Structures are given as structure tokens and as C-alpha cells.
Automatic annotation (TrEMBL):
It comes from the Bacteria. GO terms for molecular function: aldehyde dehydrogenase (NAD+) activity; NADP binding. It comes from Formosa sediminum. GO terms for cellular component: cytoplasm. This is dTDP-glucose 4,6-dehydratase. Pfam families: NAD_binding_2 (PF03446). Residues 3-117 form the 6-phosphogluconate dehydrogenase NADP-binding domain.
Length: 253
């Protein structure tokens, strides 16, 4: 039975962990908050306090087969130190969760070979993908939504929808989990994938619909917007793992 360590059992990490447990994986999970340890334990997760900016990472947390990194830190130096600890552990396979924010708004479709920003996140991706001690697959998720993360609450400033003629790149929590489990079960490593629904409605139409669902009617479409955007293609992922999105048509969500 494989053991998987999940760094960051929050909005995505906790339901991912419980799904993996139901599939008979042993799961270790981390949080930075002591009061969340009982929640992890009650879910069947072996819980740890882990902060990669701390020099005291529990050695046993990395006594696993696979490591999934689900934290939002952009501290390159902290990740560099953390990687040194991974190198001396039993971890041989890593999934690093990144973001489609690595691509600039080019008003075109972007793929995994498109130009990226010069950003801390891209630099951290490289720390993992260039390391030969373990195999890394990078997943660049689009905007995350689902359950308590309601898209109708994403637009806050003065109820104005910016870039209304741009397009959205979102992915539901259930699809995030389905993709991560497919990567593990199909043993797909040393790859980089974009992961977002393969439909891209215009921001005006999508957010007007979603804001109405949470009682926020009559949003304003920003008349001064430059309408910059990118359309993120998930076709490489779909082809590589044969994945079918549960929430593909975002206008039907």
C-alpha cells in the first residue's frame, strides 16, 4: 500500500486526502495550525504541523512514496531548503501544484510550451522539474471553484466585472481531485500539464450568471477595461490521461 504525503490539507488538500484514503492509500497530511490537527486525524489522515519556512520539518512526514505540494507560498529559498530534505527522504515522486497565472495575458490560446512570466512561481517549478533525485509532475490549475468557493463571490470591487470581453479559465474542486488521482494511478511523471475546464465563456456572461446565484444582481461591466485575457488549453492533459471533466461546460454549472 502506497503512502502519500500532502503538504497543505486545506480547501483542496483535505477532500483529496479523504478520497485517497477511500482508495486504500495511506495518507499523511500537514497543516500550519494546531487546532486543525484533530480535523485531519478524524478524517483518517496522519496529521503533522509543517511550515516549510521552518527548519524543523518532521522527518516522518517525508517517509512516503509520493509528495503532493498544495501550499501557496512563493518563497523560493524556503522551497530550495525543503527540496534538500526531500532528497534525503524516501520520496521518489512529487506533484507540484502551480497555476495558470504563470502565463501572461496574450489575448491568445496558451499551452504548456507558451511563454511564461518571470515569476517566483515559475522559478519554484524549475527547482522541482530540474531535480534528478525524484520525478516531478507540475499541474498548472486554473482558478479554483466549487462548494464554498462560489464564483459569484469572486468579483467584489464595486460590483464591477473587469475585462468583461475576456475569457475565464476555471476548474472545479472535483475535477482537481480527479486529475490528481489519475496522475497517481496512471503513474504519469516528469510532465507539466495545464488543468482547467475545456470551456471558456466570456467573463461578462459567466460572472453575471454566477453573481445572480448569490443574490448579487446587476453587476457593472467595466467600460474602461482593456479586455486582456488568455485561453488556457487543457488538451495535453486530456490526451495524456484520457480525463473527462465532470464540470466541462461552465455555463451549465
Amino acid at each position: 500500500m502506497q503512502t502519500i504525503s500532502i503538504l497543505g490539507c486545506g480547501w483542496l488538500g483535505l477532500p483529496l486526502a479523504t478520497t485517497l484514503i477511500n482508495k486504500n492509500f495511506n495518507v499523511k497530511g500537514s497543516t500550519t495550525q494546531t487546532n486543525k490537527l484533530p480535523i485531519l486525524k478524524a478524517a483518517g489522515i496522519v496529521p503533522y504541523i509543517v511550515n516549510i519556512e521552518s527548519k524543523s520539518i518532521p522527518t516522518d512526514f517525508l517517509n512516503s512514496d509520493i509528495l503532493i505540494l498544495l501550499i501557496t507560498s512563493k518563497n523560493r529559498d524556503a522551497f530550495q531548503q525543503f527540496i534538500k530534505q526531500i532528497e534525503t527522504s524516501t520520496i521518489k515522486k512529487v506533484i507540484f501544484i502551480s497555476s495558470t497565472s504563470v502565463y501572461p495575458n496574450s489575448n491568445t490560446e496558451v499551452t504548456e510550451t507558451s511563454e511564461t512570466n518571470q515569476s517566483p512561481l515559475v522559478a519554484i517549478e524549475s527547482l522541482f522539474t530540474q531535480n534528478n533525485t525524484f520525478k516531478t509532475t507540475v499541474i498548472r490549475f486554473g482558478g479554483l471553484f466549487g462548494y464554498q468557493r462560489k464564483p459569484g463571490n469572486f468579483i467584489r470591487a464595486h460590483n464591477i466585472i473587469p475585462n468583461p470581453e475576456g475569457y475565464i479559465n476555471l476548474i472545479h474542486q472535483d475535477d482537481c481531485i480527479g486529475i490528481l488521482i489519475s496522475i497517481i494511478e496512471k503513474d504519469i511523471w516528469n510532465e507539466t500539464f495545464n488543468a482547467c475546464a475545456n470551456s471558456h465563456p466570456k467573463r461578462a456572461a459567466f460572472y453575471t450568471k454566477e453573481m445572480a446565484k448569490v443574490g448579487r444582481l446587476h453587476p457593472v461591466l467595466d467600460p474602461d477595461s482593456d479586455n486582456v485575457y488568455k485561453i488556457v488549453s487543457p488538451e495535453k492533459l486530456i490526451s495524456a490521461i484520457g480525463y473527462t471533466f465532470k464540470y466541462s461546460n461552465l455555463m451549465d454549472y
